[in-house]
């Protein structure tokens, strides 16, 4: 069982319904769904510097249930359920640093950007989340 998160660059906060449609299209391998962004590539590099991508030699200690899905538009991570709190916390912090929209398809929660986006993605906020993301993933602790 995995806990999935998707990351992409978007200049306005999508609704949960819009994010679900974007996620489905990205997961189906469609291109042109959102803007390609160097922030996505930079985010991917940062992620694998902390948690190397799944490979035969690291299968036992990797947090991933499958290799990261990476395009110029998105990164989709399938995280081992037992490590979801630990890994998603790091990924959300990195996504914030690179100003990416994050979508949690399990809870249908969007972490997006707000404000005027002049160059790339801006400050992030949660949309539709009844509790802070870290608290929700960590069981409220």
Walkthrough of the structure:
With about 140 residues, the protein is α+β, with helices and mostly antiparallel strands. It is about 30% helix and about 20% strand. The chain is built from four helices and six strands; from the N terminus they run E-H-H-E-E-H-E-E-E-H. The chain has a six-stranded antiparallel beta sheet, with helices on both faces. A hairpin with a 3-residue loop joins strand 2 (about 70) and strand 3. The two termini are about 20 Å apart. About 35% of the residues are buried.
What's this entry about, in short?
The protein has four helices and six strands. The chain is of the alpha+beta class and 141 residues long. Strand 4 and strand 5 form a beta hairpin.
State the end-to-end distance.
Answer: 22 Å
> Largest sheet, order of strands side by side?
2-3-1-4-5-6
Average predicted confidence as pLDDT: 84
User: What does the main sheet amount to?
Assistant: 6 strands, antiparallel
How much is the radius of gyration in Å?
Answer: 14 Å
User: What overall form do the CA principal axes indicate?
Assistant: globular
Low-confidence stretches are 122-141
Binned, the helix content reads 25-40%
Structural class: alpha+beta
Strand % is: 15-25%
Count of beta strands: 6
Order of helices and strands: EHHEEHEEEH
Summed up, the helix count is: 4
């Amino acid at each position: 069982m995995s806990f999935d998160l998707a990351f992409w660059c978007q200049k306005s906060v999508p609704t949960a319904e819009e994010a679900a449609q974007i996620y489905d299209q990205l997961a189906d391998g469609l291109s042109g769904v959102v803007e390609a962004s160097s922030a996505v590539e930079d985010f991917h590099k940062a992620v694998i510097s902390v948690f190397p991508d799944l490979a035969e030699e690291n299968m036992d200690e990797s947090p991933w249930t499958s290799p990261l899905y990476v395009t110029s538009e998105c990164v989709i991570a399938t995280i081992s359920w037992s490590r979801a709190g630990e890994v998603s916390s790091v990924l959300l912090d990195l996504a914030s640093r690179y100003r990416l929209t994050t979508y949690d398809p399990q809870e249908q929660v969007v972490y997006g950007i707000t404000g005027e986006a002049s160059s790339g993605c801006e400050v992030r906020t949660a949309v539709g989340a009844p509790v802070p993301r870290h608290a929700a993933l960590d069981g409220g602790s």
